[in-house]
UniProtKB/TrEMBL annotation:
<dbReference type="InterPro" id="IPR046373">
    <property type="entry name" value="Acyl-CoA_Oxase/DH_mid-dom_sf"/>
</dbReference>
<feature type="domain" description="Acyl-CoA dehydrogenase/oxidase C-terminal">
    <location>
        <begin position="234"/>
        <end position="381"/>
    </location>
</feature>
<dbReference type="InterPro" id="IPR052033">
    <property type="entry name" value="Glutaryl-CoA_DH_mitochondrial"/>
</dbReference>
<dbReference type="Pfam" id="PF00441">
    <property type="entry name" value="Acyl-CoA_dh_1"/>
</dbReference>
<comment type="similarity">
    <text>Belongs to the acyl-CoA dehydrogenase family.</text>
</comment>
<feature type="domain" description="Acyl-CoA dehydrogenase/oxidase N-terminal">
    <location>
        <begin position="16"/>
        <end position="127"/>
    </location>
</feature>
<keyword id="KW-0285">Flavoprotein</keyword>
<keyword id="KW-0274">FAD</keyword>
<dbReference type="GO" id="GO:0046949">
    <property type="term" value="P:fatty-acyl-CoA biosynthetic process"/>
</dbReference>
<dbReference type="InterPro" id="IPR006091">
    <property type="entry name" value="Acyl-CoA_Oxase/DH_mid-dom"/>
</dbReference>
<dbReference type="InterPro" id="IPR036250">
    <property type="entry name" value="AcylCo_DH-like_C"/>
</dbReference>
<dbReference type="GO" id="GO:0050660">
    <property type="term" value="F:flavin adenine dinucleotide binding"/>
</dbReference>
<dbReference type="InterPro" id="IPR037069">
    <property type="entry name" value="AcylCoA_DH/ox_N_sf"/>
</dbReference>
<dbReference type="InterPro" id="IPR009100">
    <property type="entry name" value="AcylCoA_DH/oxidase_NM_dom_sf"/>
</dbReference>
<dbReference type="Pfam" id="PF02771">
    <property type="entry name" value="Acyl-CoA_dh_N"/>
</dbReference>
<dbReference type="GO" id="GO:0004361">
    <property type="term" value="F:glutaryl-CoA dehydrogenase activity"/>
</dbReference>
<keyword id="KW-0809">Transit peptide</keyword>
Amino acid sequence: MTTTIDQLFDVADFVTEEEREWQMRAREFAQTRIRPIIDQAFEDRRLPVELLPEVGEFGAFGMYMEGYGLRGASSVAYGLVAMEFEAVDSGFRTALSVQGSLAMGAIYKFGSEEQKQRWLPPMGRGEAIGFFGLTEPQGGSDPNTMITTARREGDEWVLNGRKRWIGLATIAQVGVIWAKDEEGVVRGFVVPTDTPGFTATAIENKLSMRASLQTEIELNDVRLPADAILPGSKGLSSPFKCLNEARYGIVWGVMGAARSCLEAAVDRSQSREVFGAPIGGKQIIQAKLADMFVEYEKGLLLALHLGRLKDAGNLSYGQISVGKLNNVREAIAIAGTARAILGGDGITSDFPVMRHMANLESVRTYEGTDEVHQLVIGRELTGIAAF
């Protein structure tokens, strides 16, 4: 399954044999199980939920976590899996991220031993689906405006509020809801979705991420036992630590989308003829392909560098922002150039490029917009917060 892109720059030269095995297994799964159905799923606005148990069987959910039946793989291995999934569709990689990095990540980092034992094994197997409820309709990039509340009544917590753009909630069995307690401190709660007062509704009118599942959640006097709280979480730093796990996956994932677009452009440049010759024989097309490839290679090397830092325990928030800002921005530019090379056919489902272009606009927005990451990097450079 070697591609033209791999022949010029093969990440296998820089990863371990185990990491490469993860990548190739993910590529096989993505190309044989997801790719044949993804265009129709995008058209139907449907996440292929029937494949999620197979992802669990494959072992990709929470794969870099230790214990609880999870695989304990490296962060680089996880990044390679995210890249192969997103090479087919950003929406399916998002499901991997919501389940593994966000929902499982919150329980793994901040949960009690009882919560971990109860939820992590079935979530890792894909038998239980989870969500991560932070973003609110009025808040967007500023979760400190959170209005969802958690008040204590005897031996129970009572949650009220709304969340929006929450992945997987309509099919989930459990989720983590972030709410402000009576002292105004953000706390996390494990919320089974069959709890009375919990309602999740799919957001249907999306022009991006159509083969994905985002929802709006309403919490009306949702009563939870006292031990539903994540004991290790306190303040916004807790959900931010989970978000940084997801942002790290994006750094790798979008390079998969970029590779897919670049491959489509290279192939089409050899088969599409104008003025009596393939367009790939024109200097201006070769210059565009070369520039696209250079940015792809740089982005992948950046992702690999950040992965090695993460595995060594040395990856900072600012460095993650560098990766997310650069790689999403360059993936979008690569997709746009590829679409131009494909000509009019580039807007059709004969090629994956327009679908990647639409999806990447969502990836640019979630887990921190370009502007948010610019301000994070600016704060690191100057020591002054400009939010």
